[in-house]
Amino acid sequence: MVDIGGFGGMGGGFGIVGTLFPIVFVIILIFIVVKLISGVAEWSSNNRQPVLTVEAGVVAKRTEVSHHNHNTNGQAHMHTSTTYYVTFQVESGDRMEFRVNGREFGQLAEGDQGRLTFQGTRYHGYERW
Question: Which of 68, 64, 92 is nearest to 80 (CA)?
């Protein structure tokens, strides 16, 4: 019998599909594990850093909007989420971008001057002058 479409012959399983599925599964599993490990490493690194307060100005603001579509019991649902980022410039000229909540994002304006409090990559607050 001739193998047509890669699904194997008589009693031959699923051929290429049976081989690719475990490989794709392992790749996805490795990706998830790497993301978890990097998240825990960043959290741990931030906890080891001192909380610093420095003079800084707001130089840029940006948003990142993501859309999620899913289907539940035949009904389509769409969810949109917005992530807010603010870039600060300190006296040395270095720039740092932090993820902030929507309330903080709305209260800050480009050109603001004040005191930035942070711990590693974790934003703690900004006090305008």
Answer: 68
Q: How many domains would you assign to the chain?
A: 2
Residue 78, strand partner residues: 69
Inform me whether the pLDDT recorded for 122 exceeds 60. yes
Domain that holds residue 120: 50-128
Rounded to two decimals, the pTM is 0.70
Contact 51, 124 (CB under 8 A): yes
Tell me 50's DSSP state.
Answer: P
How many C-beta neighbours within 10 Å does residue 53 have?
13
- Cα dihedral 21, 27, 30, 34, rounded to 10, equals -150
Q: Where are the beta strands (DSSP E) in 18-74?
A: 52-72
Domain co-membership, 68 together with 98: yes
Q: Do 112 and 67 fall within a single domain? A: yes
Looking at the fold, whether 25 and 88 belong to one and the same domain comes out as no
> Is the separation of the CB atoms in 102 and 82 below 8 Å?
yes
